[in-house]
Amino acid sequence: MIETHIDRDLAPATGTEWMSGGGEMGRRMRELDWTQSTLGTPRRWPAALKSATRIVLASHEPVCVWWGSDCALIFNDACAPLLGEYAANALGQPAPAAWLDGAAQVSGGDSTYAHSLSPVPGEDGGLGGVFCAFFDVSAAVATERKLVTEVQSLTRLHDLTLRLGGMTELGPILQAILDTAVETQDADFGLVWLQDRETRVLAVEASRNWDPQLLKTFNNVKSGPAGSAAGNAFEQRRRWVIEDVEADEGYEPYRHIARTIGYRAIHSTPIVTRAGSLLGVISAHYAQPRQPSQRDMQMADVCARHAADAIESFRGQAAIRESERLHRAIGESINYGVWVCDGHGHQTYTSESFLRLTGLTAEQCAGEGWTTVLHPDDRERTLEAWRHWMAAGGEWDFEHRIRGADGQWHAVLARGMPVRNDQHDIVGWAGINLDIARLKQVENELRELDERKNEFLATLAHELRNPLAPLRNGLELIKLAGTRPGTIDKAREMMERQLAQMVRLVDDLLDVSRVSRGKIDLRRERMALAVVLRNAIETSAPLLQDRNHHFVMHIPAGPLVVDADLTRLSQVFWNLLSNAAKYTEPGGRIELTVTALGDHVEVAVRDNGIGIPVDMQDRIFDTFTQVDRAMDKSQGGLGIGLSIAKRLAEMHDGSIRVSSKGHGEGTEFVVRLPLVSPG
Ligand code: ADP
User: Fold this and answer.
1) How far is the CA of 623 from the centre of ligand 1 (A)?
2) Is any atom of ligand 1 closer than 6 Å to the C-beta of 642?
3) Which atom of ligand 1 is found nearest the CA of 637?
């Protein structure tokens, strides 16, 4: 009532008698001296403006009207905040340019408004002014902003996923993840820490906007930065937030770093694998004190998950590469390496060493290519066994010959096992190729030795029995001879000869075992070579005479002195002379030639007998070796004389060699010995 009363009082002066209500703004309008404005006294305002003004004042929503060519403004209380400081003087003054321009949104105070404009006709029927109503759209705008940020974050995460797909090095991967973490959280700095698997220390692996010098401070901390956000997040395996480093007591040791770098708040998230292993921490640092928002936490979690996956996959791949290198090394350390076949038995991997052996490329060897280098005689056998093995699924163990790049056949033992999956199905085969050339050689040598030994035993039995029959006959003769001394003498001579033969056989046998066990001691002294040779010739003279050989000697004049065991060195020459006599048809020619060669002497024993086939000449000195046993038997021998002679020559620091052009071509043995000064 009082208000109305006042209005009425003022009305005649201002012409605002028709205005009513409108709160503070209504009061100011009624008090305003409108004659100073382009609108003039309100009493004369056009009816349309008056109506619009009444509506403006009556409205609780922000509304206004601007009138005339100057756009003189009339607004209500609710509209005042939209004008800010201008509100105090805006009545009757031009409306803000932004409103007139029809800006989509207008901010006022903490809110954002959209406005709708309606034309108001003037007196002449033309446009008198514009009625403008504002709507608070703050909530919608906030939602829209949030959505935009959300979409931006998702886009960044999506970009990150795409980029990670093409990256192989862990450093750049972690850097990309950290960049995304910092950007999506609107943070200013960031760090990724990983725990060193050996030292257990947390070390910085990626950083964003950090001074590298300052990073060293963190890296030097042994057990990870205790009391820091990262240290706590790691120790406690959970998010750790320091809203303001200036207010956080535990952060005191690092505060100077925070000040230097320029951050106030930290948000650290542990990096944990899906299986639950703790790998490290990802931290975002903010320039202002701050509590991370829900979205910040989500972004940090997503980035930490990306980091965990990336580290795990990187380490897994590194482990696979290491294991591949290990297997390759194992393969290469075996001659000829390892091989791998798929479930169909097609070779998928072959070690370098097998490829080197065969000269095949990996491609040529793949599939069934490896069978092309099998020996033709082994091929079918191998393939059949291979097919059988694949069907049966057992252990593959097969010997065959492989053609090498050197054109030779190489004995190879292939071994393998089926590879099974978790369901125990066979998914492939893997195995090795073993070089068994040496094994094969030893096996052959052993077989030959065994054959020689068996032959020897047969020969030995034969040789030992040979004299027994004549000896028994001799005894029989003596028994029957009575007092006929002639017969007895003859029988005794014959028996002595046979006995001597037996004694020689037994002596040889003893020698060969002693020689092979190194049990013979030489009693060496300086002596003229001639003495040794004479001794040997005397011993073999009966045999030479028996077989009616023509024996010739060439010995140079002058003393040739050797350091020898008379008996043992004589045995060498005696052996050669006996052999020459034995293996030369009766009436043959046997020569002994001595040649001095500086500090050595060579003694050659040459015959024109049956000769020795060239391919036998290497083996002739082996124990139990005889060229033709059937024929030799008649010559009475065990195949050990030459091996003893060779060993004895060597014990005298000498050597012995043979040469013969072959069967029927005669034979020459040469003994080479060092000479010593006559001293
Ligand atoms: P053996 O007791 O059989 O004579 P050796 O070891 O003395 O044993 O000789 C081995 C083999 O060498 C003989 O069996 C013989 O076949 C061959 N041989 C040795 N000397 C001669 C030679 N002068 N002429 C031909 N063959 C020989």
Assistant:
1) 11
2) yes
3) 2
The per-residue pLDDT for 635 is 63
Protein residue with its CA nearest to atom 21 in ligand 1: 579
Residue with tokens 């928002």: 293
Helix then strand then coil, in percent of the chain rounded to 5, is 50, 25, 30
Is-above-0.70 flag for pTM? no
Retrieve residue 352's tokens: 């370098």
Residues 6+ apart with CB under 8 A from 247: 289
Of 456, 508, 583, 589, best ligand 1 pocket probe by most atoms within 8 Å of the beta carbon: 583
Residue 608 CB less than 6 A away from ligand 1:
no
Does the beta carbon of 588 lie inside 6 Å of ligand 1? no
Asked whether the beta carbons of 57 and 37 are under 8 A apart, the reply is no
Task: Judge if the upstream peptide bond of residue 263 is cis by omega within 30 degrees of 0.
Answer: no
Q: How far apart are CA 443 and CA 452, in angstroms?
A: 14
Residues 149-203 pLDDT 10s: 888 888 998 999 888 888 889 999 999 999 999 999 999 999 999 998 888 888 8
The owner of tokens 């060496």 is: 524
How many whole angstroms from 620 Cα to the centroid of ligand 1? 7
Q: Which two tokens stand for residue 572?
A: 């060498």
Angstrom distances, CA of residue 516 to CA of 189, 442, 519, 646: 85, 19, 8, 11
Which is it for strands 589-597 and 655-659: parallel, antiparallel or unpaired? unpaired
- For residue range 231-251, what is the model confidence (pLDDT) as tens digits? 999 999 999 999 999 999 989
Q: Are 105 and 112 in contact (CB under 8 A)?
A: yes
**568: pLDDT confidence band, cut at 50, 70 and 90?**
very high
Distance CA 551, CA 592 (A): 8
Q: 395-415 pLDDT, tens per residue?
A: 889 999 999 999 999 999 999
Enumerate residues 6+ apart whose C-beta is below 8 A from 463: 505, 633, 636, 637, 638
Q: Can you give the pLDDT at residue 74?
A: 94
